From TrEMBL:
Protein name: Carbon-nitrogen family hydrolase
CDD domains the record matches: nitrilase_5
SUPFAM superfamilies: Carbon-nitrogen hydrolase (SSF56317)
Domain CN hydrolase, first and last residues per copy: 1-239
GO molecular function terms attached to this record: hydrolase activity
Family to which the UniProt record says this protein belongs: Belongs to the carbon-nitrogen hydrolase superfamily. NIT1/NIT2 family.
Pfam families registered for this protein in UniProt: CN_hydrolase
InterPro entries recorded: C-N_Hydrolase (IPR003010), C-N_Hydrolase_sf (IPR036526), UPF0012_CS (IPR001110)
Keywords: Hydrolase
């Protein structure tokens, strides 16, 4: 399976409309990929809190239209990162969009864990409540977003729903880049799953971004990692290795806590 993670640089001098068109072209350039992944809140920047309200759009808004068309033209599964969604209830949500190779919206995911400690995203956006998995021909994908990476119980829930590959778009800050790599590897090892974590480059509202998008295998080995700037990170991996790892080293079978019926 070939995955391309597009580590987008968010430049405040670039309009949302121009960035949307540029990113759609980058997606179309990934011909031959099975899965393309974009970062979190790339239309505005993850720390551009003042832009969330003005840039918010409905689920099937202009970003949906552009990304659906790009996925269909590319013929790949597309995790289009996330956008500030204005829901039917009028609230804002940090919502991920996932498209099939035909350009259909296969799933959406509202970020469950909002970052900010009673400010920023944590107060401006509503929380999602439903974990999301999507069945691709090669693997079942579990979806998480940025700060979600710090909460292992979400990933356990995704594993219980069949996830073998985690896709994590993010707008992770440079000052905590070591956590980004550490947590991506930890989520891979403890769940014996692949982790495809796609970050942003550039600076969002004065906050330098970590970049360093990363692909980790079920043993915690880093298969590929980007640098700090805008780039496309492409990697070939065998999704079947998740099941093989779980069979060879069946640690998940020894789980006791967190199960509906604890093992004895």
């Amino acid at each position: 399976m070939r995955a391309s993670l597009i580590q987008i640089a968010v430049n405040e001098d670039e309009t949302v409309e121009a960035r949307r068109a540029r990113v759609a072209a980058l997606v179309r350039a990934q011909a031959g990929a099975d899965l393309v992944v974009l970062p979190e809140l790339w239309t505005t920047g993850a720390f551009a809190f003042g832009e969330f309200g003005t840039a918010a759009e409905p689920l099937r808004g202009p970003t949906h239209e552009a990304m659906a068309a790009a996925a269909g033209d590319t013929g790949a599964w597309l995790h289009a990162g996330s956008v500030p969604e204005r829901g039917p209830d009028g609230r804002l949500y940090n919502t991920s969009l996932l498209y099939s190779p035909s350009g259909d919206l296969a799933a959406s995911y509202r970020k469950i864990h909002r970052f900010g400690f009673d400010k920023g995203e944590a107060v401006l956006m509503g929380a999602g409540h439903e974990p999301v998995t999507v069945r691709l021909p090669e693997t079942t994908v579990g979806v998480a977003t940025c700060y979600d990476l710090r909460f292992p119980e979400l990933f356990r829930t995704l594993v219980d729903a069949g996830a073998e590959t985690f896709v994590v778009p993010a707008g992770w800050p440079e000052r905590r880049r070591s956590h980004w790599t550490l947590l991506a590897q930890a989520r891979a090892v403890e769940n014996q799953a692949f982790v495809l974590a796609c970050g942003t480059a550039g600076t969002h509202a004065g906050v330098p971004q970590a970049g360093h998008s990363i692909v980790v295998d079920p043993w915690g080995e880093v298969l590929a990692q980007a640098g700090a700037g805008e780039e496309v990170l492409t990697v070939e991996f065998d999704p079947a290795r998740a099941a093989e790892t779980r069979e060879q080293f069946p640690a998940l079978k020894d789980r006791v806590l967190g199960l509906e019926t604890p093992r004895r």
